[in-house]
From TrEMBL:
The UniProt record lists the keyword Transferase: no
Transmembrane regions listed in the UniProt entry: 7-26, 100-120, 127-146, 152-177
Native organism: Dactylosporangium darangshiense
This protein's name: HdeD family acid-resistance protein
A Pfam family per the record: DUF308
Keywords recorded for this protein, A-Z: Membrane, Transmembrane, Transmembrane helix
Amino acid sequence: MLKREAWLLGIRGVLAIIFGVLAVIWPGVTVIALALLFGIFAIVTGVEQLVHAIRPAPGPSNPVTGFADGTGPRLARGLAGGIGVVLGVLAIMWPGITGIVLAILVGAWAVVTGLSDLWLATRQHGGWSLALIGALAIVAGLFIMVRPAAGALAIAWAIGLYAIISGVLLLVAAYQLTHQGSGRGRMAAAH
């Protein structure tokens, strides 16, 4: 299961980096092209979040919350994933929306995804990279929402830089998860 999670994080990281590089290299792309790129990125990220939300929660229920361990993070991922997929589909269906509306959609999506990642990071040991991704997403989302009229160029650069940094951090998280899983196997073999 850890390999599958690492693989999904790795794909999400690579796609984020590709999306970010394209947004930084071609900041003058039309709003329509940016909307389509965002739509694809949001759908892929949303589906990845939904996959994590759907899988069964391991272990007994938490005595404080009454939920099975992992239920809260599953709900957060499900919400972030559902919003990502919906926003991605809307951006693809109506790519001619204005830059301001796109900026508000991107900003809101980044804040919700960031909050979800922060929540998940508090529940994982060694989740510092996920916490950093969440904090970065919230800051980028709030900046974009506060200044939606900054123009397509600034928005493209902000989105691109956010995507590149979060993509690198997702690859780090995938690497950590892979090594966390292989470390457990070595420890079990030693006993």
